[in-house]
Structures are given as structure tokens and as C-alpha cells.
């Protein structure tokens, strides 16, 4: 293996240490803890784990969490009533509505209701638009975490070719915007991209956010590239990334593992956004 492993777990722990100190300074100054409201609708097992990890992350750095668990058949009206209440609540600096929501609830309507200043996921149209225009805003957590991991290599991003595979609103699109802000030359690929390997082979930075187990193989990667694997694919009780780690680690210069790469950074960035929202 030639690639250096980017240890997301370690970097997340170091960052959380800094956030804890920041939260303590906030408490001294404002005589209250920063607060994050977490809303989960239904019983989806994966979502329950994510929400549990978010609440535990708050505890770790000294953010007060307000968890709201709603029944799977809660009405959209009731959910929006809760969001309005949290928007008004001065103890709540950030609001997170865990996705996906049940089919009878319109995700866009719900996310549009969030006060943009409290939208720590950066899922609202207003925050996504601010990110596009390069205006100060809360940046989407997973892409922001990826940027931190790339920066941890010490490699200057300016002018590098960055290729993002995947065009989701949660990862692909905001990831491309953040890479552009770092002065990368950015290409977004997706399921209709022709000759994908030809494009990915040009990438100095390759971000895989496709949602397909071990999709990126060694022959798709440029020698020495920084490879960031956003994938979380469960198969027979095991977690797999979107990157074939065995093959790609022989070619890349740097690579994130799954688990222990991007995952721990996402929640860390959520905590960072909550502090940023509290101080705003
Ligand atoms: N569902 C999957 N990923 C996320 C995330 O980052 N935030 C929220 N709110 N829901 C998700």
C-alpha cells in the first residue's frame, strides 16, 4: 500500500477538543450553553443511530441537545408547528431535522420552514443559495468535513483538478461549491457521465459520493491523488465505502478509510455549525 491514511477519527477528536473549549468560552460569556434541537420522525434504525450519535456529540463538547422524537404518522402540520416553536426558542441555536422523512411529509416544505440562521445542516434553499453565491453561511456538514480532511494533508488545493462523483443536494453539489471556494477546478460526475474513468483519472482530488459499494476501482484513480470516500454502504453486517480501498490505496497518495474517515467529521462539523450559529 502506498497511500497515506487520512485518520478522520483522530482529526474529529482533535477538532471536538477545540469545540469544547469554544463552548466553555461561550458559556462564560453568555451564561448559557449553545443548544441544538434534533428532530427525528419515525423509527428508521439507521436514522436512530445517527441521531443518537449527534446527541452524544453534543454532550461531549458541552452543547445542550433537545431531542424530539415524533411518531411515524405525525402530521406535517404538527411537525411544522414544532419547527416554528424551535425557531422562536432562544435556547435553541441550531435545528436539525433528520432525513429521510416519511413519504406523507414534504421534505422541501419542512426544510424551507427552518430559520436559515438555525439551519445547521445547510439544507434550506436560503443557505444553499448563500453557499452558491459565496456569501457567509453555515456550510453543509459532510462536505465541510471533507474539506477539513483534505486540508489535513497539507497539500495546497488551489488550482488542483477536483472531481466529485455524485450530485446530491446533501453532498455532491455543496461539495463542488466548497472546492470551488478553495480555487480548485471542479467537475461533477453522475450516473449519466460518459467515460467516467477518463474524468476521474484527471482528478488530483477525488470525492466519491455515489452510494454504491466499492464503485471506484484502482484503474479510475490518478497516481498520488487525494481520495475522499463519503460512502456508507451496509452489506451483510459490514460497512463499505464507495471506494475499493484495497485497490485504490495502492494508487492514491492519500485516502480516507470507511469507517473512520468522513463519518466522524460530519457530526463534528454539525457541532461546529451549532457553535457558529450560537455566536452569530
Ligand atoms: N440523513 C442522512 N444524512 C443526513 C444529514 O447529514 N443530516 C440530516 N438532517 N439528515 C441526514
Give the C-alpha Rg. 19 Å
> How much helical structure, as a percent, in the residues?
40-55%
Q: How is the main sheet built?
A: 6 strands, parallel
As a percent range, the share of strand residues is 15-25%
Q: What structural class results from the helix and strand content?
A: alpha/beta
Distance between the termini: 45 Å
Arithmetic mean pLDDT: 97
Bound molecules: guanine
Total beta-strand segments: 11
- Helix run count: 10
**Which strand order do you get reading across the main beta sheet?**
1-11-8-7-5-6
- Can you tell me the overall shape? globular
Could you name the ranges where pLDDT drops below 50 across 5 or more consecutive residues? Answer: none
H/E series: EHEHEHEHHHEHEHEEEEHEH
Features:
3-stranded parallel β-sheet, globular, 280 residues, binds guanine, 6-stranded parallel β-sheet, alpha/beta
